[in-house]
Each structure stands twice: as structure tokens, then as C-alpha cells.
Write the C-alpha cells for this entry.
Amino acid sequence: MPKGSPELTASRREEIINACEQLYQSMSFKEITIKEIGAVTSFTRTSIYNYFQTKEEIFLALMQREYEKWSHELLSFAEQQETVSADSFADALAHSLEKHEQLLKLLAMNHYDMEEHSRPERLRDFKVAYGASLDAMRTCLHKFFPAVNCERFIFVFFPFLFGVYPYSVATEKQLRAMREANMDFKMHNIYEIVYACVMQLLGGAA
């Protein structure tokens, strides 16, 4: 770990994660390298290794940050509301994930690689953030829908998130291939997919 204040360390880690996020808007996971990330930071490429050993660790940190933000939003929603209908909860959850398209994209494409090529301590930190999102969802469900089987909801909903991005976002190449294959398909957005799933899991609970 580099010498310096905790504030400087945190600031530089954040800058690296932000650089990775910026590149991921227009480049694929395979295209992005430590060199590419270093080119859009204010310090040298070799300095990145003081904070992250692999690009997978940087992506994992990006996904960890997304989970942390989402967990905070879920808990804030639970604190601000006394009661909500199934429709209102599905609407809020769908809108929250709509804002976290980055998280859904990471889940769909690179989750295994990120975990496999990260140090145990980085993976532990990520699992803490992931676990917090599970607990935040439990908080919402226990408060608003005590009759719903909470663990069943989680068992279905969290794996379901891995498939949301590819069903809601397609490249022109993918769309053309589906048309040429004469597939009967209709693209749905993130909100529509998440809302439908949540309503199904809640069974219309009020």
C-alpha cells in the first residue's frame, strides 16, 4: 500500500475507479487494460498497482461501489415510507435499478472474471457490500410485506438481476442477427423487466 494519508489513498482509488467507469461507457471489458485506465488518471500507470493488482480488482471495486449506492437507496426508501403497495414498491425498485444500469451490465458480463482475478481481501470487501444489499432488501420486505417469503424473494430476484441487462440492451449487430434469424422478439427496458418480476414475486401483496 502506498505511503500517504488515508484521504489521499481513498481519493486515488476513487479516481482509478472513475477512470474505469468512464472507459466502460464506450469500451468492452476485454478492451480495457491497466494502461488504458492509467491514461485517463492524473498519475502514472505503474502507480495504479499500488492500489489495484489487476484490472479485475478495479472492476470489482466499481461493482462494490454500485452495490453500496443501491443498498443506501433501498434503506433510505425503507426509512422514508411507512407503508407501500406492491405496485409502489415494484415501481421504486425498478426505478432504482434503472439508475444502476452499470451494476446490471457488470453482473451480466464480467462477474466471474472479477472475482476469480481479485485478491481475497478485495473479494471480501466486495462481499460485504453485496451482503449489505441483501440485508437492505430484507429490511424493505420485512417492513412492507411481512407475509411474503423474504428468502424466496431474494433467492429468485438477485440471480434474476444477472439477466436484466442482456434482455434490455442490445447492439445493432445483435438486433440484426435476431431479425435475420426471424426471431419473434420485443426488447423491453430495465424498468419494465424489473417491475414485472417484482410484481410476480410479491403476488400482488398490498
In short: The two ends are 51 Å apart (CA to CA). The chain has two domains: 1-51, 57-202. Residues 1-51 form a domain with the Arc Repressor Mutant, subunit A fold (CATH 1.10.10). The longest helix spans residues 55-80.
